[in-house]
Write a structure and sequence with these properties.
Monomer. The chain is of the alpha/beta class and about 375 residues long. It has helices spanning about 15-25, 50-60, 65-70, 105-115, 185-190, 190-200, 235-240, 255-265, 295, 305-325, 325-340, 345-355, 360-375, and strands at about 5-10, 30-35, 45-50, 80-85, 90, 100-105, 120, 130, 140, 145-150, 150-155, 175-185, 200-205, 210-215, 220-230, 270-275, 290. The strands form 4 sheets. A 7-stranded mixed β-sheet has the order 5-4-13-14-15-12-16, sandwiched between helices. The protein starts with 6 loop residues before the first strand and ends with a helix. The structure holds flavin-adenine dinucleotide.
Length: about 375
């Protein structure tokens, strides 16, 4: 282990913070640069299921098993599939006994932040560019400010990474799917029929060239997505983002119990265009730079693997840096293994995005659920 290495991590998402925590735990000094002004600048998004062999394993390596148990929701692992007539086609048996508890993204980020020393994360530090110094090290540029030089810069800055262009020519491509996100508060008290419809976990509703995904979050909050296969500019002219009930016009003929979701939703909607990097995305090693998480292998959310892969990248990169004295060898070992490891997840997510809303989507979803969630 080379504790004198100067390491910069760009991006304080689940990947970057897991890496910072594991390295810090083993005596290495790291600096994290995050463009958001503080941990509460924006809600961090919905609920995530952390898998035993990746997300949970990484938190164990981070020494955060107990912190995780305090925020994990084992009771919310349910999964349902319904058609647009409101017929329930699948319900996971014994969802509470599953190994993939849900955790709210904000709670996960807070647990990771609480485990880091004050000053480790530089807030309000959006990095615009990374430049070579000439001696194998790199500097970070934040407006007129320069940080560094660093021996290693890790891009964990998500889909639109500013580090990735130094390693790869690829940009994420639009998958053709647009998610219109809605939220429902206090569902148990204010909307008991909707709470019953969704159940304790996730509800997928597949219809004719449309779908709705709704997921239970902590504090009786539901987060949902109305899913459309449309050009990127479609939502701007067809969706009123200040009126959730207006979504009903795009789901004509759907069962009234399902349409009630849009009546119950908060007025403000968010539009999310789903992008992905090509399956098998990789780059030639360049000393002093690497990528983890979405910056390395952005996938559509259909596999539910993105955050798990990001956290496992962090754990594996940390392990190589801790056991291999030569930084470049450590990073190459991480990259070579990671490129292969993420392939099946990236392939599965790509297939999910390609078949979602197709004529076969309901049958494929059903087969997937039977294969993956029903005990064999
Ligand atoms: C709608 C939707 C639903 C999803 N659902 C799931 C799910 O159920 N399960 C799952 O596993 N995954 C899911 N994902 C994917 C998951 O969100 C990502 O894979 C995961 O967040 C990746 O973590 P990360 O740390 O690599 O990047 P991010 O979480 O994107 O974090 C990147 C961080 O870098 C910061 N940043 C960006 N640019 C800069 C810059 N230039 N300078 C400094 N900081 C910067 C950002 O502010 C952010 O804090 C979903 C994604 C979407 C869009």
């Amino acid at each position: 282990m080379n504790t004198s290495l100067r390491i910069a991590i760009v991006g304080a998402g689940p990947g970057g913070l897991t890496l910072a925590r594991i390295l810090h735990r083993h005596g290495m000094t790291v600096s994290v640069f995050e463009r958001e002004s503080g941990p509460f600048e924006r809600p961090q998004g919905g609920t995530l299921d952390l898998h035993a062999e990746s997300g949970q394993l990484s938190l164990r390596r981070a020494g955060l098993e107990d912190a995780f148990k305090r925020i994990a929701r084992y009771e919310d692992q349910g999964s349902r599939l319904m058609n647009h007539h409101g017929h329930l086609l699948y319900e996971a048996p014994n969802p509470e006994a599953g190994e993939r508890p849900e955790v709210d993204r904000t709670a996960l980020r807070q647990a990771l932040l609480d485990s880091l020393p004050l000053g480790c994360v530089n807030w309000g530090a959006g990095i615009d560019a990374v430049d070579p110094v000439g001696d194998g090290r790199w500097t970070l540029h934040q407006g007129a400010l320069t940080h560094g030089p660093f021996d290693l810069v890790v891009g964990s800055d998500g889909a639109w990474s500013k580090v990735r262009p130094l390693l790869s020519h690829y940009q994420p491509q639009y998958s053709g799917l647009t998610f219109i996100e809605f939220g429902i508060d206090e569902v148990d008290n204010l909307h008991p029929p909707i709470a019953r419809l969704v159940g304790r976990g996730k509800l997928d509703i597949d219809g004719e060239a449309r779908s709705i995904i709704v997921q239970r979050n902590a504090n009786a909050h539901l987060r949902g997505y109305a899913v459309f296969r449309v050009p990127t500019d479609w939502a701007a002219s067809h969706i009123d983002l200040s009126c959730a009930a207006s979504l009903k016009t795009h789901f004509e003929g759907w069962h009234p119990d399902i349409l009630a979701l849009f009546d119950a939703a908060n007025a403000q909607l968010e539009c999310r265009h789903i992008h992905a990097l090509p399956v098998g995305h990789r780059w030639a090693h360049r000393p002093g730079l690497t990528l983890i998480g979405d910056a390395a292998h952005l996938m559509s959310p259909f596999g539910g693997e993105g955050v798990n892969a990001a956290m496992l990248d962090a754990a594996e990169l940390a392990q190589h840096l801790l056991k291999t004295p030569d930084c470049s060898q450590a990073v190459q070992a991480y990259e070579n293994h990671m490129f292969e490891r993420v392939m099946p997840a990236a392939q599965g997510s790509a297939e999910g995005a390609a078949t979602q809303l197709s004529h076969d989507s309901l049958a494929l979803s059903l087969a997937h659920l039977h294969h993956h969630l029903t005990p064999q």
